[in-house]
Amino acid sequence: MDLAQIGIFGGSGFYKFGEDISEVKVDTPYGRPSSSVFLATINDKRVAFIPRHGVDHSYPPHEINYRANLWAMKDVGVKYLFGPCAAGSLQKHVKPGDFVFCDQFIDRTQGRKDTFFDGPITTHVSAANPFCPTLRKMAIDSAKKLNIKAHEAGTIVVINGPRFSSKAESIWYSKMGWEVINMTNYPEGILARELEMCYINISLITDYDCGLEGQVAHSTVGEIMDTFNGNLHKVKNLLFDMIAKLDTDSSCCCHSALSSARFND
Questions:
Q1: Distance CA 87, CA 173 (A)
Q2: pLDDT value at position 186?
Q3: Chain centroid offset of residue 41 CA
Q4: d(CA 224, CA 230)
Q5: Strand, helix or coil at 78?
Q6: For residue 67, what is the enclosing H or E element?
Q7: Where are the alpha helices (DSSP H) in 100-207?
Q8: Over pLDDT 70: what percentage of the chain?
Q9: Pairing of strands 19-24, 37-42
Q10: Can you tell me the distance from the alpha carbon of 137 to that of 159, in angstroms, rounded to the nearest whole number?
Q11: How sure is the predictor about 18, in pLDDT bands with cuts at 50, 70 and 90?
């Protein structure tokens, strides 16, 4: 199908945006995605939305069918994929309300289906630079234009969930110098690379992780929700600005990720 070239994973506030909204059910070889694919027009471009946790937020991070979600996006024609996510900060200088456009990840998940290539063709997709450089540069430029406080790079630690980190784990991550912690970014980003889609992580910092306790003020649930809601408004503005200037006919190195990933016979 060629229904949309831009895709967004997000919550309930995202797929209700835009004009000419429609719903498409997609079957995948990997089972059902988190929801139908919602299609909308934004800045004269067709955009596909899937709420990664489901319409009713019924899928916890470790139960999301990531392969089905990515396959559904590819099936409707998506080439450029945005992955905004709520995240915690591991460093004092990365403050609640900031954005981080991560350029690296640390995988601390267990048992997640994280590849489309179980054989018979042996395929090793590079994860050296796992996020799309083209979209990240666009995000940096749009954030500056919109006066959004953003960190141009950072490492995201992805934990399995649904539990949060222990204080000892969080201190370890912080001492390693990593910036962001989240439960959904892996394997979402690397699966996009396997399907030769551009993918950008946009981390929306809602609070400080527990390893920084004693160094920063503790956030209440109300404060976390206020920060998240403020971020939601900002990320929509960011996405709309990026969508407006994205040339969907352009090419990127992400679109040929498999060209150097397979052994020759």
A1: 14
A2: 97
A3: 21
A4: 10
A5: coil
A6: helix 66-75
A7: 133-145, 167-175, 185-194
A8: 95
A9: antiparallel
A10: 26
A11: low
CA 47 to chain centre: 16
3-state DSSP of 86-121:
EEEECCCCCCCCCEECCCEEEEECCCCCCCCCCCCC
User: Left if phi > 0, otherwise alpha if psi is -120 to 50, otherwise beta: which for 160?
Assistant: alpha
Stated pTM of the model: 0.93
Angle of CA points 86, 240, 89, to nearest 5°: 20
Could you tell me which CATH number the domain at 6-260 has? 3.40.50.1580
Report the catalytic residues.
Answer: 207, 209
Which residues are 205's β-sheet partners? Answer: 87
Report domain extents, the chain. 6-260
> Who contacts 126 (Cβ-Cβ below 8 Å, separation ≥6)?
193, 257, 260, 261
Tokens of 229: 């809601």
DSSP 218-237: PPPHHHHHHHHHHHHHHHHH
Report the alpha-carbon distance of residue 218 to residue 223 in Å, rounded: 10
Burial (0-12, 13-18, 19+ Cβ within 10 Å), 261: middle
> So what's the pLDDT on residue 264?
62
Tokens (6 digits) for 168: 């000892």
**Rounded to a whole number, what is the distance in angstroms from the first to the last CA of the chain?**
32
Apex CA 21: angle with CA 195 and CA 205, to 5°? Answer: 60
